[in-house]
From TrEMBL:
E.C. designation(s): 3.2.1.21
NCBIfam families assigned: BGL (TIGR03356)
Organism superkingdom: Bacteria
Annotated region (Disordered), positions in chain: 29-60
Reaction equations catalysed: Hydrolysis of terminal, non-reducing beta-D-glucosyl residues with release of beta-D-glucose
Protein name (record): Beta-glucosidase
Annotated source species: Fodinibacter luteus
């Protein structure tokens, strides 16, 4: 290993949580099984424009994905074999409430009870994400996250799930990456529901923040012993130009990309001064919202893959849409063109810790997609091993300087359906043949297993 890599995972200590993550829509398939209703991602991935083109880059859908709705026991056995003590997975709201509201679909809820039980039987701790982007289409038809009523429907969904599973689930995450829900789903249209509207962005931003605060209290009311968290994509945004004007753009981008999601949860409101763009949220704020948006959290999940770059525009607060990729200093790129910048994770952890408000921080996602092939039963993904070793070195360094980060979840257990990118990118520690659904542990999976005491061996 190079000096900037962590070769010995045990260096992070015996109290460190090692986990691996997935998301329901990306792995489950079975889009109508057992009474499931459609989600916005079912709708989005089946859209065609007048030229017959789909919004998914490779034209695939998640109708089968990794077939994990039926193969969940096999997948949990892989988590155990790789040596991970925790499995982060999400619940599909439209499986549990097909219309987004009561009545509850008992068959869908019972499925997740079986998944939780399988984790516990395997000695793997379930970490449950309540919302990982797959909003019931029926709620989208009524305005989705642009409608204030969705906040209340979300809180009711949280209550239903916590009452059903709270006796067996300790760790909960309210949302996965609101940044992508709000910006990719409501400004760029690159992700479901595919909206392209600034008013939609402002409404969704505020309503997701409000749902996080109110949802945290609904969860605690239903499960007083819950360990409650939420996750955010956090990154040092970098402007594309030199000089003081670029610094202005960076501060505005930081306000929109990071602070607009974190600070309302802490009772600090929106950072209007750094980004006048955010003044557009004001019409959606009602009396009491500043208090209601404050989240009662035990931990914050930090998610980081690469820095976000916000190209400069000369009017503070107005900037082009943030984007991944575009190496400026010779950084290595993933197969999606994302820069590999491990130090960005350290900067993100420091930025969160600087608030002095989060007593526990967990890296709830990190990983990379690379071109790779299954040859003679093996996938030699040494670049992924290097990626994890370098990022985990940043976690170790952050712990050494007092940041209370005590867990890391690799993304992902399996190659899966990577949202608008489709089935082409491969992030998994386990290779999936999408034709046969055969699972093959990659060298990166064996690397974790060797150090974490897993039973998997080449």
């Amino acid at each position: 290993m190079n000096p900037g890599e962590l070769a010995d995972l045990a260096a992070l200590g015996p109290d460190f949580t090692w986990g691996v993550a997935t998301a329901a829509f990306q792995i489950e398939g079975s889009p109508t099984a057992d009474g499931k209703g459609p989600s916005i991602w079912d709708t989005f991935t089946h859209q065609r424009d007048r030229h017959g083109r789909t919004p998914v880059k490779d034209g695939s859908t998640a109708d089968v994905a990794t077939d994990s709705y039926r193969r969940y026991a096999e997948d949990i056995a892989l988590v155990k074999a790789l040596g991970f003590g925790a499995y982060r997975f999400s619940l599909s709201w439209p499986r549990i409430m097909p219309a987004g509201i009561r009545p509850v679909n008992r068959r869908g809820l019972d499925h997740y009870a079986r998944v939780v039980d399988a984790c516990l039987e395997a000695g793997v701790e379930p970490w449950v994400t309540l919302f990982h982007w797959d909003l019931p289409q029926a709620l989208e038809d009524r305005g989705g996250w642009t409608a204030r009523d969705t906040v209340h429907r979300y809180c009711d969904y949280v209550t239903v799930v916590a009452e059903a599973l709270g006796d067996r689930v300790d760790h909960w995450m309210l949302f996965n990456e609101p940044l992508n829900i709000v910006i990719s789903g409501h400004v760029t249209g690159a992700m479901a529901p595919g909206r392209r509207s600034l008013p939609a962005y402002f409404a969704a931003l505020h309503h997701v923040n409000l749902a996080t605060g109110l949802g945290s209290r609904a969860l605690r009311a239903a499960d007083p012993d819950a360990t409650v968290g939420t996750t955010h994509y956090l990154s040092p945004p970098i402007g594309s130009g030199p000089g003081p004007l670029a610094r202005v753009a960076e501060r505005a981008a930081d306000a929109v990309l990071n602070r607009a999601f974190l600070e309302p949860l802490l009772g600090l409101g929106y950072p209007w001064r750094e980004s006048p763009l955010l003044l557009g949220v004001r019409p959606f704020i009602r009396d009491g919202d500043t208090t209601d948006a404050v989240a009662d959290l035990d931990f914050l999940g930090v998610q980081y893959y690469t820095r976000l770059r916000a190209p400069f525009l000369p009017i503070p607060g107005l900037w082009t849409v943030p984007r991944f990729g575009g190496a400026e200093h010779g950084h290595e790129l993933t197969s999606l063109g994302w820069e590999i910048i491990p130090e960005g994770l350290g900067l993100a952890l420091d930025a969160v810790h600087a608030y002095g408000a989060f007593r526990r921080i967990v890296v709830t996602e990190g990983g990379a997609s690379f071109p790779e092939q299954l040859v003679s039963g093996r996938v030699h993904d040494h670049r992924r091993i290097d990626y994890y070793a370098r990022h985990l070195a940043q976690v170790a360094a952050a712990r050494a300087r007092g940041v209370p980060v005590d867990g890391y979840f690799a993304w992902s257990l399996l190659d899966n359906f990577e949202w608008a990118e489709g089935l082409t990118p491969r992030f998994g520690l386990v290779h999936v043949d999408f034709e046969t659904q055969a699972r093959t542990i990659k060298d990166s999976g064996y690397w974790f297993a060797e150090q974490l005491g897993g039973s998997a061996h080449p």
